[in-house]
User: Fold this.
Amino acid sequence: MARPLTKTVNLSSIKHNYLLAKALHPTSKAFAVVKANAYGHGAVAVAQYLDSTVDAFAVAAVEEALELRESGIKSPIMLLEGVFEASEWSLCERHGLWSAVENDAQVDALIDSGCHIEKVFVKVDVGMHRLGVDPDRATELVERLRQSNYVNEVLLMSHFSSSDDLLSDTTSKQLAVFKRVHKNCGNIEGSVANSAAVLKWDIPEGGWIRPGVMLYGISPFNDITGKELGLKMAMTFTSKVISLRVIQKGDRVGYAGSFEAQKEEIIATVAVGYGDGYPRNAINGTPIIVNNIPCSLAGRVSMDMITVNVSNVPDITLGANVELWGDTLPVEHVANHSSTIGYELVTRMTSRPRIQYR
Ligand SMILES: Cc1ncc(COP(=O)(O)O)c(C=O)c1O
Assistant:
């Protein structure tokens, strides 16, 4: 019998979530963000399923775009992080890729290359200070690209630093900066919204939205799950009980004995660990579903196994079904017990769990 650890991806949920993002902004076009292996869901399978539905895909870098092209993806693909080397412009031209640019060197390289690119998005730094040209220099880059005749359409984009925080006024301030720059650039299309902005902020209509994590049914917000936002969770991560034992009051479980039984308990060992992407810093009490009953992590996460308190599961046996996150257990709840976010849990899964598509 193979190790019973499976990542099941429901592709129709991803389509549902993409169409929901579009329905929230009916005058905008939407990238489906499939970078980082479609947030761990398998970029090729996800893109093949969505190819005839989406306006375009967005990835981080040219290697991710080429993987999609090699698998037959026909939709436009945008490079959110731009090109890293001048030679990548010819790949963009050959494979019909669009790109963000954020500095003079990238624009110089494009013009020197003589490559023709369908769409280039000038990225403006509206306050995150990670990527983007200074707002006062954005029009200059836009004009250089427009006059070069190498770019069919020049657009303006930005990225918010705090759109997941609905109580902060940072996003409104960053949006105001973007709107000012956008006005100065004349009548060009813009793109500002990641999932949080798509779901909850009053963003300019038209242009392009860039939903990522919400496509996979995961919430960008700390205190609300994807399900509560009307999203369908795409990934269900499951395993099985491979060992069972009864322990007594005072017995300790796992490395360093970090769980101590307060009374007689039943402990199940489950085939999953940090070597598969289950978070090592998940604390005692992290929720886990066993045979559809809510249970909790008991003891430190090992590389290949975890231990779970299953005392409340009737008739527990070897081979019992375990949901680590998914349809029943929101990944956000596991993230909240592991000092991380749902984004990280799904993107950092390793290649060990077998993957199946529904
Ligand atoms: C430039 C850019 N746009 C869009 C996204 C999608 O963001 P989210 O997954 O929060 O929707 C990302 C993700 O990091 C990004 O870097």
Remarks:
- The first helix runs from residue 11 to 24.
- The mean pLDDT is 97.
